Known about the structure:
Residues 659-877 form the PPM-type phosphatase domain. This protein is of the alpha+beta class. It folds into five domains: 6-84 and 105-136, Heat Shock Protein 90 (2-Layer Sandwich); 163-265, Beta-Lactamase (2-Layer Sandwich), CATH 3.30.450; 294-360 and 367-430, 2-Layer Sandwich (Beta-Lactamase), CATH 3.30.450; 469-559 and 572-640, Beta-Lactamase (2-Layer Sandwich), CATH 3.30.450; 650-877, Phosphatase 2c, domain 1, CATH 3.60.40. It contains 20 helices and 34 strands. A hairpin with an 8-residue loop joins β18 and β19. The radius of gyration is 38 Å and the shape is elongated.
Amino acid sequence: xxxxxxxxxxxxxxxxxxxxxxxxxxxxxxxxxxxxxxxxxxxxxxxxxxxxxxxxxxxxxxxxxxxxxxxxxxxxxxxxxxxxxxxxxxxxxxxxxxxxxxxxxxxxxxxxxxxxxxxxxxxxxxxxxxxxxxxxxxxxxxxxxxxxxxxxxxxxxxxxxxxxxxxxxxxxxxxxxxxxxxxxxxxxxxxxxxxxxxxxxxxxxxxxxxxxxxxxxxxxxxxxxxxxxxxxxxxxxxxxxxxxxxxxxxxxxxxxxxxxxxxxxxxxxxxxxxxxxxxxxxxxxxxxxxxxxxxxxxxxxxxxxxxxxxxxxxxxxxxxxxxxxxxxxxxxxxxxxxxxxxxxxxxxxxxxxxxxxxxxxxxxxxxxxxxxxxxxxxxxxxxxxxxxxxxxxxxxxxxxxxxxxxxxxxxxxxxxxxxxxxxxxxxxxxxxxxxxxxxxxxxxxxxxxxxxxxxxxxxxxxxxxxxxxxxxxxxxxxxxxxxxxxxxxxxxxxxxxxxxxxxxxxxxxxxxxxxxxxxxxxxxxxxxxxxxxxxxxxxxxxxxxxxxxxxxxxxxxxxxxxxxxxxxxxxxxxxxxxxxxxxxxxxxxxxxxxxxxxxxxxxxxxxxxxxxxxxxxxxxxxxxxxxxxxxxxxxxxxxxxxxxxxxxxxxxxxxxxxxxxxxxxxxxxxxxxxxxxxxxxxxxxxxxxxxxxxxxxxxxxxxxxxxxxxxxxxxxxxxxxxxxxxxxxxxxxxxxxxxxxxxxxxxxxxxxxxxxxxxxxxxxxxxxxxxxxxxxxxxxxxxxxxxxxxxxxxxxxxxxxxxxxxxxxxxxxxxxxxxxxxxxxxxxxxxxxxxxxxxxxxxxxxxxxxxxxxxxxxxxxxxxxxxxxxxxxxxxxxxxxxx
Length: 883
């Protein structure tokens, strides 16, 4: 680390298992967020994911992750225990020539994202480290603005309300003034002591912006976000945060908030740019502008990487410079076919943020955004400027933003009166646009790079979560939770069972939980989107139209007009739903294995639009989600088939045997298995006679279960044909051998039982290679109730014999499979002696209590789950009741 001073450190070790990669990512993310470095979290998470994958998957060892914070940056080191596995650095450029090779991609990312990186070897470990420098965060500076005439001052309400909120070091509200109460409709008692995060609606775009926790830790911060009022609606605010400390050294943050359209009240004037500032004015250009021109303020733009602030300040200064009523700035898409609204002032919210218009809006010179244009009266040419339709604006001047001859955006200023602008104003605005175009493009590229890095981190996390489950309902929930509120305000997932089925609404989520039910009700009333396999997002207007219609009907009812039928929901709920769904709604197909299996629907609240980069990220997510959803569907179908077949192998309910208690406990090893290699059966043979069996097929899983089905059905059939125990087992042995390569050897205890009139029970048993049955007498003695004989499925000619056992009243016969006796904890095994000891303590217990006590003893013997199938069959002859 050289001379760098280490100010904080965090370390953790992760085992060589697949889930450790996700755990390591969470560790690094939580560490850096806790240190207040959210702006480098995405890069750090992506690099950590690659390096830990190399350690635990490719090298197959544990990974040691060390995070160090210094006065200049953050260094993260990932070490594995396989130093002999060298990094491929022998040839210059070898890593970067083959980014897909093992061990190459992680270093390729280090080279692309990290400030510095390297590899260090020791005798026991290999360390791959990278360092990310922290962006400079200068503290706020004092500055003053020039004196301006009254008509150049920003417009605000007659009564300006400035909410003053103080946040303690734990992020909770400690002071709430009267203006805050008036703006957000909360009394101080309702908010003091609660985290600000419960009320703040913070932007969640991956890779862009600063998180609220980081903003509260900075010495000074300004920006826009939302505060959720008591009615659930988000109120856009502009905030100025100042970090302070009291006489005791206790730190807190004072937040001043105004409505977002009153931002000029709090917005700090910017310093004049440094010598290398992109917006510095050349001496020759200075003379072209009158010194008193408001455009002089235009020089003081925000830092180049603060795109939103730069664009908003640009439109405000452009409007003031030309004394307009409104202004807007649009940025061009990469292919220069569309323009996206990124900032505006004086226009309805419908014209703001990410609405898109074509570059070529019509024929002729004035129909293209590539050339300056002056429209003296928009009513004479309807639709000439689509963005201004229905706004009341009559005249407009627009100029292109160009960098090296390429269209990067468009800047426009409009007025409500006609004939306001001439070519002279167009030249002034073009001059301003030329001065700011390079700064805007640089800031746009910086934001785009942050967004792409954040998107990569987002997709890494999303892929890991989706791959971690095969449950359909959980997959649907994950899809929605990953999109809300990160990508959209609300989300609905439709699924399609097959090509002949209608799409079904399967999951609905809204960032405001109180609106989920209303949103679901609304979506159930509209026809679902068509399951079209065309890739990409497409606009879906049905929810918005339905929400507006519902709001209109509610308004008419409230005025006593329209139908008198009572609405299913109150007017407030209906209007709230319309507000929540009234923005842009898009549908992305979920396509897996060349088939549409559903649709992912994303929506925005009233008058909001999606930005193109978010739609591209959502498209990437939809592809991953579709494959995860289809995998869960296939897994569910196969699990259902497997469980249905397995249930067919289990015997029906045990018969009620007069004078004999019977209890069976069965546990199949393996997740999702109901039947394994162990089996049991108790069935009537003829009047007064009953058969019972407990067996163990070699192995577990479906192959063993197949032999289980053969054995159980053969036993019943042969016993009811009148064959005795030895003959039944000999014929079963022949049937198993006839299976050829599919045959498996089988241990089996088979017996026949006859209840006697004196209260006892007569048994005839054959034990073919199976653990011997144990007999518990009333005096507590335990003894084997049969002798061992050869197992089945190995030899052709078996000579078996049966043994007769009489169970007196109070006696218990316990039969188990080797999953019980071979239960292990390290080198210890329960064994026959351990089972005998347990059974000795069961005197006087019912058959059910005996079986339950044996099961508890087996489960407590070892902490790990059982790895073998297990069956317990207990039969008891109850004592004869006196009188």
